[in-house]
């Protein structure tokens, strides 16, 4: 299935039905009064979030959507039927923006959440509505009103608990494939991953969590370099970031360089990312032959103040330690959120990472 995370669409609500000009005509009522019915209301265009969709692919092939118009009124005081609403299902996590101004109009971040994008026009009044003491036989009726029309941009931001970030070919796809049922394309060249991948990870008795692997970042990504800004949006909603570092390729003169480059790109893209908890996964440790080098790298990355775990996604070494660390940090973030929302402060957390200290 092709992954599409941004599309532009036009939505048109239904026009209201026209009111009717009619007079009562019966055998013994030669001069019956007006009995023209009202037109029906036009249908609305509604967006609904569903977890059955993971992409905006359906909107790539059809860009214009129109709801049903209202039926016209009829004689004998018969009102026209209202047009049916057009319900368009989108993946959970879809933002709806005004195509001209970029203003966010709706954030459909929960299954079943609905937002009315365009309201149908009101039906016109029939001539029975215009009777007065001075006008007993009105021969006028209203036309139905036009429905709203809007030019919109749909932008999908994936909802995941954990986001994997790092350079191309750092081993993110291999990692998500090793800990979940996700099966991304894996190869030994950069930019193998061209679209985000989601995987559900289960570890021990902890609640399963969703992990997202986005295409690799390079310097200048926040300005669009590489695949750049197109996919950075998908880590904005994650609760925890995992920096995947190719331990076999770090420069000896500055082993933290890969981390700092990615960190700089994240922060220049969004200041909110600065406050997200982080872990470091030193991947491909099986290719670092000297044990002293492995210990040296681990100590350097631990000095950042984030949990750092030595792993090999290919041989599955260290994955239990990494998943245990992720589960612990997810639990800490959950308790921290409860602490902020609750008037009763929680007991101090053991081994609280520095970025969680108020």
From TrEMBL:
What is the main EC category here? hydrolase
The UniProt record lists the OBG-type G domain at 160-331
Q: How does it assemble?
A: Monomer.
Q: Where is the Obg domain?
A: 1-159
Give the Gene Ontology MF terms in alphabetical order. Answer: GTP binding; GTPase activity; magnesium ion binding; ribosome binding
Q: What does the record give as the function of this protein?
A: An essential GTPase which binds GTP, GDP and possibly (p)ppGpp with moderate affinity, with high nucleotide exchange rates and a fairly low GTP hydrolysis rate. Plays a role in control of the cell cycle, stress response, ribosome biogenesis and in those bacteria that undergo differentiation, in morphogenesis control.
Region annotated Disordered sits at 117-144, 337-358
Under what name is this protein listed? Answer: GTPase Obg
What PANTHER family would the database entry show? DEVELOPMENTALLY REGULATED GTP-BINDING PROTEIN-RELATED, MITOCHONDRIAL RIBOSOME-ASSOCIATED GTPASE 2
> Family assignment?
Belongs to the TRAFAC class OBG-HflX-like GTPase superfamily. OBG GTPase family.
Q: Which residues hold Mg(2+)?
A: 173, 193
| UniProt-listed Enzyme Commission number(s) | 3.6.5.-
A single GO cellular-component term from the record reads:
cytoplasm
Which keywords label this protein?
Cytoplasm, GTP-binding, Hydrolase, Magnesium, Metal-binding, Nucleotide-binding
């Amino acid at each position: 299935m092709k992954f599409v995370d941004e599309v532009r669409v036009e939505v048109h609500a239904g026009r209201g039905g026209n009111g009717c000009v009619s007079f009562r005509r019966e055998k013994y009522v030669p001069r019956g009064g007006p009995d023209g019915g009202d037109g029906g209301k036009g249908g609305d265009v509604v967006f609904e979030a569903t977890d059955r969709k993971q992409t905006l692919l359906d909107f790539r092939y059809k860009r214009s959507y129109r709801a049903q118009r209202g039926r016209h009124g009829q004689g004998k005081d018969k009102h026209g039927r209202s047009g049916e609403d057009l319900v368009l299902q989108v993946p959970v996590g879809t933002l709806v923006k005004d195509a001209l101004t970029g203003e966010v109009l709706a954030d459909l971040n929960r299954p079943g959440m609905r937002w009315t994008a365009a309201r149908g026009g009101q039906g016109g009044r029939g001539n029975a509505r215009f009777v007065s003491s001075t006008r007993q036989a009105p021969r006028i009726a209203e036309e139905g009103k036009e429905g709203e029309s809007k030019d919109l941009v749909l932008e999908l931001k994936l909802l995941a608990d954990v986001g994997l970030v790092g350079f191309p070919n750092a081993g993110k796809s291999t990692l998500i494939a090793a800990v979940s049922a996700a099966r991304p394309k894996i190869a030994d060249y950069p930019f193998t991953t061209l679209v985000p991948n989601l995987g559900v990870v289960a570890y021990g008795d902890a609640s399963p969590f969703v992990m997202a692997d986005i295409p690799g970042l390079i310097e200048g990504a926040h300005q669009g370099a590489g695949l750049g800004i197109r996919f950075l949006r998908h880590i904005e909603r994650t609760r925890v970031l995992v920096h995947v570092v190719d331990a076999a390729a770090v420069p000896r003169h500055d082993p933290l360089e890969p981390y700092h480059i990615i960190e700089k790109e994240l922060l220049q893209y969004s200041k909110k990312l600065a406050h997200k908890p982080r872990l470091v996964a030193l991947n491909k440790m099986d290719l670092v032959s000297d044990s002293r080098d492995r210990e040296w790298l681990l100590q350097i990355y631990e000095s950042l103040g984030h949990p750092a775990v030595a792993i090999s996604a290919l041989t599955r070494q260290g994955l239990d330690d990494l998943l245990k660390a992720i589960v612990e940090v997810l639990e800490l973030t959950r308790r921290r959120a409860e602490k902020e929302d609750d008037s009763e402060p929680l007991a101090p957390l053991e081994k609280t990472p520095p970025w969680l200290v108020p």
